[in-house]
Amino acid sequence: MRLFEDRWRDGAVALVLALLGAGLIGIFRTVARLQDLQASMPEFIGLLLLAGIFYVIGVFVVEKFRLGLAALTVILLSSVALRVVLLPAKTTPSDDVYRYQWDGRVQRAGLNPYVVAPDDPDLDSLQNPEHPEPPGEETATIYPPLAEKVYKQIESVSGYKRVSTLLDLASVGMLVLLLGALKQPLERVLCYAWNPAVLVSFAMSGHFDSLAIVTLLVGFFFLMKNRATPAVVALALSFLSKLFPVLLLAAFLKRMRLWYAALFALVVAVFYVPFLDAGVHLLDGARNYARDWLNNASFFQVLLYLGKSKSVAEVSAACIVLGVVVYLARTQAAPLWSALILTGGVLLVSPTAYPWYFTWSIAFLCFYPSRAWLLMSVTCILGYTPAISDGAGEPLRNSLLMLGLEYGPVYLWLGYHGWIAMRKLVVAARKAEVFAGNL
Fold first, then answer.
1. 207 by DSSP, 3-state: which?
2. Arithmetic mean of pLDDT over the chain
3. Among 17, 84, 208, 405, which is 20 to 30 Å from 261 by CA?
4. pLDDT digits (tens, 9 = 90+) for 61-104
5. End-to-end Cα distance, the chain
């Protein structure tokens, strides 16, 4: 009788997940069919927020019930289907993929992407006539060497989307392996695999943050297996895809000999060698990005107000991040917990926090499903709202109302939990004083 009840419950939960997955597939099919995304941005954001509701319910089901193989199968099959329906989308909410394409064409022409920019009139022949103004057209590339090497191998926009999606699905597979290694429920992979921000960033937009994420997860897998060399190499490859994984170098080195820092540096140096003819201009793109970009920032705006200049605010933000890195390393925090804190926290103090940047941290919700950050992973979609003003022919700008709706609930939630934690510390301190007084 008990066996029958368990099977009935498992089947019912799997059916609920199947219905949620079907609902998400229907929503994203509608998203993929939007013809002019710039003009349809309000509908696009509304659909993603609706998908966020389905997603949160799915996370609740995974956390609330003990699931079986049927439920995991539904989650994984739906994960593939969700990406497949987004791949044919004709437009994207971000045009970064056109910059990838331009960088690839530059390299195939024998040029160094770290010294040329799309607005160079002598390079008009390298432009995509369907999108002749890629992002950052006035500056050399900001992307690290491994990403550039991959861009060189791909020619079409659809090709970038397919490769990004395959890397994204590889991340899903790595998360299943990591969850299994940590003896956590495999169904928690839903926290990443069904997330709307993840789906739109990779399958629809073709962002190559997926390369950094999958190599970072590979690094963590080897770290869990106590295999230091492949772990550090994978971390270096992740850094060479997108710079944010350097935040986790201390967390890795804390669990291995210090000389592995030299291995990390060696791998990085090897990939930079082919581009060294750029000389002092090698980091021009990164410097220009740090100097000029300011978009969808939250706490950085407070630092900017207090510091009166962007450079002072950036130094303050860097000090905050460095302090958190040192604290997590000294307390020997769990590596995956450190990853969630650092990849999420850096976005709260960053001058630029595009919606696809939040995908860096979403993978780690599979291990620590923080309610506040799950909410952030949904509300970050509001970071696309500046495109509404652009579609209306007005300058791109962040609305204070939209920033409040995006970040306000998350900061309130974090503040509440911080207050609870402080109260517990105060109570514990008072009990210790009373105990000491009774001795």
1. coil
2. 91
3. 208
4. 999 887 888 899 999 999 999 999 999 998 889 999 999 999 99
5. 57
Interacting residues of 360 by C-beta distance below 8 A, sequence separation 6+: 209, 212, 213, 242, 244, 343, 344, 347
Name the nearest CA neighbour of 315 among 298, 300, 325: 300
Residue 113 domain-assigned (yes or no): no
Residue type for 369, please? P
- What residues make up the domain containing 3? 1-91
The label of the residue with tokens 């999420």 reads 344
Per-residue pLDDT reduced to its tens digit, 306-316: 998 999 999 99
> Nearest CA to 132 among 186, 169, 95?
95
pLDDT in tens, 315-338: 999 999 999 999 998 888 999 999
Residue 134 falls in which region: left (phi positive, over 0), alpha (psi -120 to 50) or beta: beta
Q: Check if the beta carbon of residue 93 is closer than 8 Å to that of residue 204.
A: yes
Residue 430 falls inside a structural domain? no
Any domain includes 404: no
In a domain, residue 51? The reply is: yes
| Alpha carbon separation from 76 to 17, 24, 53 (Å, rounded) | 11, 13, 19
The kind and range of the H/E element at 325 are helix 310-330
Residue labelled with tokens 């970009």: 293
CA 1 to chain centre: 46
Residue 351: what are its φ and ψ, rounded to 5°?
Answer: -70, -20
What's the sign of the alpha-carbon dihedral 156, 159, 163, 165?
positive
Rg (CA), the chain: 23
- For residue 7, what is the DSSP state? H
Domain count, the chain: 1
With contact defined as beta carbons under 8 Å apart, do 309 and 180 qualify? Answer: no
Q: Report CA-CA distances (Å) from 52 to 28, 191, 374.
A: 11, 11, 10
